[in-house]
Amino acid sequence: MRKRNGSGEIELAAKIIDGRKLAAKLREAFALRVQALEASGACPPGLAVILVGEDAASAVYVRNKIRACEATGIKSVSHRLPSTVSNAELLGMIVELNADADVHGILVQLPLPAHIDVARVLETIAIEKDVDGFHLYNVGALVAGNTVFPPCTPYGVVKLLESEGVSVEGQNVVIVGASNIVGKPMALMLMARDATVAICHAKTRDLAQFTILADILVVAAGVPNLILPQMVKTGAIVIDVGINRLPDGTITGDVDFAGVAQKAAGITPVPGGVGPMTVTMLLENTIASAERASVRQRLVEARHD
Length: 305
Ligand code: NAD
Description:
alpha/beta, three-stranded parallel beta sheet, binds nicotinamide-adenine-dinucleotide, single chain, Rossmann fold, six-stranded parallel beta sheet, globular, 10 helices
């Protein structure tokens, strides 16, 4: 719906859902949780990040994660390995980190070089340190509706919806994209909150016939301008997870933002929407892991008192 203000300019109908603002607010609260942990005598939360190879985008993501950790009081250590690293060496590093009491979260930055057995890498991470939530145990827990490590990007989307007061119960949710890291866990997390969920993917015939039904549309396909205004129901909430770099260097999402913002009730921008929330939820998962470790430690100490 197009609205004109007093000067005749077209106003956006949609509220812009600001991920940066929510991320900043949550991170302030996280810093207090870290201080409380340390005040109780526990060691600060520790995150180990393993980066294999020289992928430029991965290096940027890792740097952002490390910076965010530092700003919150989380001790983060990055381990860089050459792209030629063997499976055994990488698995050995994970096993060592599993045994390190100062490390509460282990993250292996994906994608990994083709010769690395990704499934084995993810399953070698101790389940109580699996802050990305990609270990099969945690995937299974997500299916059962009680994971302790919700995968960070869909978790960030849930927090954005909650902060906007968007109730998902009974709503029609359509998710475009069915990957293991975004689309599938997103579907499970919203099903657990009693939404009616449909998942679309690259082989879906006539995408628009699904998206037009969505009260809440989550798009994570990696295709710029995939979602056009005529594919969106008036008054829908549109969450754009996509991050695409255009030939001129601009970063854009999967949604025609200017067009869809005339019709939707709420929309996330790219950048500044889901992106900042992903890193924020990694911090949350790491702090929560350290808090659980501290409770376990206290139980052990109490037994020996
Ligand atoms: P992926 O390539 O693993 O999966 C893409 C999914 O989209 C697949 O299920 C595919 O079938 C589907 N798809 C592709 N083209 C489609 C089309 N034309 N119509 C319908 N479905 C289509 O990607 P991913 O890792 O899930 O990431 C998706 C996007 O989200 C990418 O742009 C990625 O950069 C972005 N992403 C952003 C964040 C964040 O923090 N904001 C985090 C992870 C991924």
